[in-house]
Design brief:
single chain, 6 helices, mainly alpha, 72% helix, 133 residues, TerB-like
């Protein structure tokens, strides 16, 4: 949704965060892989399922080269990956807290993003139900 505006280095670092996020609970499932493939297509880069950098390294590098708008966009899309199964488990919550600290994002941002993503997922679910009968 917001990723096309990032530069190539930001896109690759975002992909590292997605891969690390997907692996954070040791359950790198097909839904997460499909979402990473969609993100890569949107960003016009090659999909990959192995990170080049750790979560800390990728987040710090991304923070250094990004403005506030870029960071918020990355955060929204990253939370979407973590919530692709409609749940943010304890390990994923820890991952999120780590990234939020590095990105210097307040706790309320997570509440806002999760609330709106849940609404968005509900709309998608309703539309899929309608289309598929």
């Amino acid at each position: 949704m917001y990723l096309k505006e990032l530069n190539v280095e930001q896109k690759e670092l975002f992909l590292d965060l997605c891969v690390n996020a997907s692996n954070s609970n040791d359950e790198f499932d097909e839904t997460e892989k499909n979402l990473i493939e969609q993100y890569a297509e949107e960003m016009e880069i090659e999909p990959r399922f192995e990170a080049r950098f750790s979560t800390d390294e990728a987040a710090v590098k991304l923070k250094e080269i990004s403005n506030e708008t870029d960071i918020r966009a990355v955060f929204v899309e990253l939370i979407a990956v973590l919530m692709s199964d409609h749940v943010l488990d304890v390990v994923e919550s820890d991952f999120t807290a780590k990234v939020m600290k590095i990105f210097d994002l307040p706790t309320k941002d997570l509440d806002v993003v999760m609330k709106n993503l849940k609404k968005l997922f509900e709309v998608y679910d309703n539309l899929n139900e309608y289309v598929n009968g």
